Amino acid sequence: MASAQVHRIAVIPGDGIGHEVVPAALEALEAVAALDGSFRFAFDRFPWGCDHYLETGRMMPPDGLEQLRGYDAILLGAVGHPSVPDHVSLWGLLLPIRRTFEQYVNLRPVKLLRGVTSPLRGRGPDDIDFVVVRENNEGEYSNAGGRLFAGTPHEIVVQESIFTRRGVERIMRFAFELARRHPKRRLTSATKSNGISYTMPFWDEVFREMAARYPDVATDQFHIDALAARFVTHPHHFGVVVGSNLFGDILTDLGAAIAGSIGIAPSANLNPERQYPSMFEPIHGSAPDIAGKGIANPVGQIWSGAMMLEHLGHPRAGRRLLAAIEHALAERGVKTPDLGGSATTREMTQAIVRSLDEVP
Amino acid sequence: MASAQVHRIAVIPGDGIGHEVVPAALEALEAVAALDGSFRFAFDRFPWGCDHYLETGRMMPPDGLEQLRGYDAILLGAVGHPSVPDHVSLWGLLLPIRRTFEQYVNLRPVKLLRGVTSPLRGRGPDDIDFVVVRENNEGEYSNAGGRLFAGTPHEIVVQESIFTRRGVERIMRFAFELARRHPKRRLTSATKSNGISYTMPFWDEVFREMAARYPDVATDQFHIDALAARFVTHPHHFGVVVGSNLFGDILTDLGAAIAGSIGIAPSANLNPERQYPSMFEPIHGSAPDIAGKGIANPVGQIWSGAMMLEHLGHPRAGRRLLAAIEHALAERGVKTPDLGGSATTREMTQAIVRSLDEVP
Ligand SMILES: CC(C)[C@H](C(=O)O)[C@@H](O)C(=O)O
Ligand SMILES: CC(C)[C@H](C(=O)O)[C@@H](O)C(=O)O
């Protein structure tokens, strides 16, 4: 037997339920690799996050990014803890990784799995199946800004949103390429050019320019308020949706909700040029309210692992893992409490691993 | 009989379906006034909007705001037309009115009316009944910003979000006062302080400071992404929700969607100090796709009129008009196409006017 290809993965469980769902994903990934036989994983764990911050005053060591740089991919759990301000925890770990490694695409499927009930009346898996492409490096998330007259009644706080031609063009190009391969061949852009008068008209301009180069892709655009409403009223409309950092963030949590549970939704932070490692993480947060109880839904993390498999060149193995998730939910009926079931993280994970044998 | 009090109202139908739903609201308002007997209306119409722009290059005359200043209230339809860029039409009419007249509160009920079906599975009128208080004067909607290196590959576009202590304190105070009188006594704040690192932590600070002064109000906060998801998964959770200009905008369109139709939702742009006229308008836009067909849902506009009645000191008449809307929808079963019926704007309006006789 030829020796298997080895993928070196940096694993950052992070905080809260990250410590429960990440081991679940590693178990599922090992199982897929064992069945496939053509590759295996070498996982290195990094104990970074809010505990590390409370001990050291930093979310990761000063050379943290250097330590990660050589890996084939990063698997992240969730970041955030009630005793650390969110803007500290996120700007100290998650956001620098996304930016330093130019993971400018945040790819987030919105897909109702079989066996899961959507909160939308009368909607089934055929109605909710699209992809959101979120700009992941610039835009409204910025640490540029400041305060004037702090602590006085005249206090003024300013925050800059910064959009660059390079940044908007590359995300649009990725989205159009994806839409071209999507069964619906439709790309919908999220804007707010009626209220936000510099950056959003620019976003629309680049969208229009790019659309001219992809005449085979149908396009439309909605203001973010109307678009959020449309996720609820017309989910079947969408093929690929492209949005800025903030709008993509809002739409994908909403997307996770209409697809049945925030605990299910996966995401891939991609550096499409593969100069740097890409990162895979569920959409959900660290969920301090249920952390340590063993009831967190591991599906979002495991599905993120399936996206990682695809990125690493194993699309068949990725599809198989997703099929196993769906089999466990639909055919075995195993569900965690967020889905109305009573399975533990462990039971859900085992059901998925066992289902691997029963799917193509 | 004592002579009736006269309310002078500036009426701006605006664009698109504004021309259809505004006359409907005037008819309903006249009918309520006639039944009540203690007041009547003097409506002055202003033909401002995109047609005016296409003729004159301006959305309203140079002294437009001066013309409006002396009115008791403004009733607005909708603004926007495909041949005028949105940031031109909105910054030329709607947004200057909101700002010049310090209508810093945008009050938007999210209420599922009897007779209307929510797109959320299993949710009825008891589950969806809350109020969003949207900051309406500053924040993310700003015309401060600019472009560098325009037209080159190095183009950079910057937009400023600007939050002031005065602005945030006054909207928080209004929201806490409202929450104190709300049956749930709960105020939920929309934030995004994990990604947006100056303005949103400031928003949270003021929220915390104000909460200390209202110990009788239960408070919580969610990041806007999680909050949008929660509108879908836990609508019954909410009493009063407070959000910035952009977040309030997104949440209220989403709120309109879960409450059955964007065509139903009303809003009040309030200057609580009553130094300037307040403005009442539906949440929906000018809907060019259905304009001129006579099928627009007039409920959002008429309900906005009911909010105007309350503001003008006639809360009983306002409640009566809302009860008539609900009676027409639930008892008469009259519904426009957006609600799954086939009534025209005219038929829906008549059903509401006739229902006025049958409600207290
Ligand atoms: C038309 C637009 C500028 C406006 C807004 O975003 O304020 C509208 O969406 C609203 O909610 O009243
Ligand atoms: C934690 C937070 C900064 C993050 C984001 O908004 O990007 C999260 O919500 C996400 O969607 O990955």
From TrEMBL, chains A, B:
Keywords: Manganese, Metal-binding, NAD, Oxidoreductase. Pfam families: Iso_dh. Coiled coil: none annotated. InterPro entries: ICDH/IPMDH, IsoCit/isopropylmalate_DH_CS, IsoPropMal-DH-like_dom, TTC_DH. It catalyses: (R)-malate + NAD(+) = pyruvate + CO2 + NADH. Its EC number is 1.1.1.83. This is D-malate dehydrogenase (decarboxylating). It comes from Geochorda subterranea.
